[in-house]
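I hope you will forgive my troubling you with a question about protein structure. The record follows directly beneath this note:
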Amino acid sequence: MKLKQTAALLLGCLLLTSCGSKPAESTAEIPAETTASAEAVPAMAPVTETTAPPVLLRAEDVKAMPAGTILDAAQLTPETVDALFCAEPIDDAVFARINGVSYQENPYITRDDLRYLRVLHITPATEICIGEMICNQLIAEDLLDIFKRLYEAQYQIEKIRLIDEYGGDDEASMADNNTSCFNYREIAGSATISNHAKGLAVDINPLYNPYISDYPDGSKNIQPREGLPYADRSSFFPMKITDQDLCFELFTLHGFAWGGNWDTPLDYQHFEKPM
């Protein structure tokens, strides 16, 4: 009887000791399906925006655009650019624009003597712009080469439009800094036919390169009048033509004389080719 009581007592002590001890840490594993599911989620690829390549312009499409149109360089190939520097006879559409304005019936030059030029130029905003010009056929190839090289050098020319866009008004064209060539007119202040009337002279960025002559009273005649701030050639300003300028270099290389080298008047915008 005493042995049974002693055994029961020992068994109770063992149970109390087991219940008060720290429980064993769980060693249960994550179910296989849970692990597989986590690994199955792919990493998110970075989102990138894609843009379609620019549509290339054909030369014939650009030729149909009006002068003054701004072009995207990414849409032009070297071959297209080359094709956009071109000279053509004066067709009926162009003649309708100039007849009775820059063109007048005269004994010196006929419609057949003239050529219509299309060129590209770089504006002060560094945009590519379509330009147009009418000149004598004798200097057409000279001008195409000059303007092509100015374009390639990123030389800034603000506008190249027919003076007919200004009603044939030379003063208005100059004030708007428009580069032009043919205009059947007399030399300012004289009865002599200008080389512009023969299509043999070009005015480049005329606002910044004015015509300057002396009045009898000693005062200065500056054309355009808005060019007065640029009559001081010791100052620095954009689009200023000097004898160190690329424009001067190219025109003189092609045999043109520069009005900025004259004694009087001084015509800093003006290049003409003696014929």
The helical segments are 2-20, 32-39, 59-63, 78-83, 92-98, 140-152, 170-175, 246-253. The radius of gyration is 41 Å. The chain has eight helices and twelve strands. Residues 2-20 form the longest helix (19 residues).
